[in-house]
Specification:
The longest helix is centred in the middle third of the chain and has 13 residues. The protein has two helices and eight strands; from the N terminus they run βαββββαβββ. It has a domain of 135 residues: 2,3-Dihydroxybiphenyl 1,2-Dioxygenase, domain 1, CATH 3.10.180.10. The strands form two sheets. Strands 1-4-3-2 form a four-stranded mixed beta sheet, with helices on one face. Strands 5-8-7-6 form a four-stranded mixed beta sheet, with helices on one face. Strand 6 and strand 7 form a beta hairpin.
Length: 196
């Protein structure tokens, strides 16, 4: 089974990289660790942990999202509601809440969701963000819980992956097939000429 080590990056979009940097780096405190770009295109990466990043494409014609409250159902095409970043404690939530309010952004009260405590806000692109601290009451990683009053049959199969649902691999990639092709970012391997 594949061993996941985190979310390498979540890729979002902005038309204003400077205000995005000011919010994510300077207000939230996430280091700007990588950037690709040329006129009309940028792709910048902010560090959350040693394994996890949030990235932004800067596309000049992208429009700010319409403001939508976290978790409120919508109709039509839709694929993203909000992203939640885990912090180590409630003290971190209070520090973030104070910083976000001082910067003039709306931020919710601290809410108890049973297994996490959370605050909610929006970045300058109206991307819905949640910050969550683990609750001392319940660790769902150690003790999974499902309190859905009408769970689907697939849900009731349990929290662990169910073998045999998908076809087994019968022709794995050979060593000769395991080639890595050049992509955007090979310039990181050359001489450095950036500003960081």
């Amino acid at each position: 089974m594949v061993k996941y080590t985190g979310i390498n990056h979540l890729a979002l979009a902005t038309s204003d990289m400077d205000s995005t940097i000011r919010f994510w780096r300077d207000l939230l405190g996430m280091r700007l660790v990588a950037g690709l770009g040329h006129p009309g295109y940028r792709h910048y990466f902010f560090e959350l942990t040693d394994n996890d990043m949030v990235a932004f494409f800067e596309w000049p014609d992208v429009e700010k999202l319409p403001e939508k409250d976290h978790g409120v159902p919508v109709k039509g095409s839709f694929g993203f509601d909000h992203v939640s970043f885990e912090v180590s404690s409630d003290d971190d939530l209070w520090e973030l809440k104070d910083r976000i309010e001082a910067a003039g952004f709306w931020v919710s009260e601290v809410l108890d969701h049973g297994f996490i405590h959370s605050i909610y806000t929006f970045d300058p692109n109206n991307i819905a963000i949640e910050f969550s601290a683990p609750s001392k009451k319940l660790d769902v990683h150690k003790t999974p819980r499902m309190v859905d009053s009408d769970p689907s049959p697939v849900t009731c199969e349990g929290s662990d992956p169910v073998p045999g649902v998908w076809p087994e691999v019968t022709s794995p990639s050979s060593e000769e097939d395991k080639m890595v092709f050049p992509g955007e970012g090979e310039q990181f391997e050359g001489d450095y000429d950036g500003c960081i």
